[in-house]
Design brief:
Layout (H helix, E strand, L loop, with lengths): L8 H13 L13 H25 L16 H9 L5 H4 L6 H13 L3 H10 L4 H5 L7 E2 L5 E5 L4 H6 L5 H12 L9 E4 L13 H18 L3 E5 L1 H8 L5 H4 L4 E5 L2 E8 L2 H6 L4 H12 L6
Parallel strand pairs: 2-3, 2-4, 4-6
Antiparallel strand pairs: 1-3, 5-6
Length: 299
């Protein structure tokens, strides 16, 4: 078997691209390594080394400080050197976990944006969500806001995270064909996702993660003021409709999303990724698209 050390840079790049396309996210050793046992062995070795070094130090005339006696001062120069050394920061290594303060911070950042460009900057600069720490890209809206048509999916896929655009890869190509079937393109509508960052392993976002992303998508809709919204997939349908049914129960019906007097007509259908996994459902999606297109402006 060819080892990585025997490959040139171009071959290594091609191998990594192949793994990424296959969905590989973590590179592992060929043999399992017990890190806990290795740490315990290192700790035991250090203790043994210290215990064997103590008698030799006493024999050389060096004695340990007596109990209760302070060690000798190192002098101002040594103290200054110690203070100048960078101290490890435990908090900087930990991912930010969404909580009530983080949700309030997201709401303030979203409401402060007066345009889609400002909102994009706010989302890209937001650092209080743990999803951002594992994602490569921040996914924001793409297309034309003035069309009055929004297409909203659930969360970025691995292809989206890699390309930095919503609905990339095979699912994006299928969405392009779905839009073309009703006389639209991805450039003529506004395409976005509820969650701006891809969850690790394409898992479902947790309730706290969803809560922290909600202000951003709600502000996005308020700024665009679409005439109608196409909701894609199970997660997105439940998010907007507040119901727990599957996409097969929620699809194909016009509903109102929003609150108070500011509501918008929306229809849910299957996500392109779901259609790739179950091609037989394309007939259902086609029926939904026909019903959605009936309200599109003609001409």
């Amino acid at each position: 078997m060819i080892q990585a050390r025997d490959m040139n840079p171009a071959e290594l790049a091609a191998l990594l691209a192949f793994h990424a396309e296959a969905g590989v996210e973590w590179l592992l050793e060929e043999e399992p390594v017990d890190r806990i046992a290795a740490f315990a062995a290192e700790k035991a070795a250090r203790q043994t080394s210290r215990s064997t070094a103590s008698p030799s130090a006493s024999a050389g005339g060096v004695t340990a400080p007596a109990a209760g006696r302070s060690p000798p001062s190192r002098g101002p120069a040594a103290d200054q050197r110690q203070q100048s050394r960078p101290q490890p920061s435990q908090s900087s290594a930990l991912p930010a976990i969404p909580d009530e303060n983080a949700v309030a911070e997201a709401r303030f950042a979203a409401e402060s944006a007066r345009s889609l460009a400002e909102l994009r900057t706010a989302v890209e600069g937001f650092a209080s969500c743990n999803l951002k720490t594992s994602a490569r890209s921040t996914i924001t809206a793409a297309g034309t806001a003035s069309s009055g048509i929004m297409v909203i999916g659930s969360m970025p896929s691995a292809d989206d995270d890699r390309e930095g655009l919503p609905f990339s890869g095979r699912a994006g190509l299928l969405l392009d064909r779905m839009l073309m079937a009703i006389g639209q393109t991805r450039e003529s509508v506004l395409i976005t996702t509820i969650i701006p960052w891809r969850p690790p392993g394409d898992r479902m976002p947790s309730a706290p993660e969803t809560a922290i992303c909600r202000p951003f998508i709600e502000r996005q809709i308020a700024l665009v003021e679409p005439r109608q919204v196409l909701v894609l997939g199970n997660f997105a349908a439940r998010f907007f409709f507040g119901e727990t049914g599957t996409i097969h129960a929620l699809r194909g019906k016009w509903r109102e999303i929003g609150s108070g007097d500011e509501t918008l007509p929306a229809m849910a259908t299957l996500h392109p990724q779901e259609l790739l996994a179950a091609p037989a459902s394309k007939a259902l999606a086609w029926m939904d698209l026909l019903a959605f297109s009936e309200r599109l402006p003609r001409g």
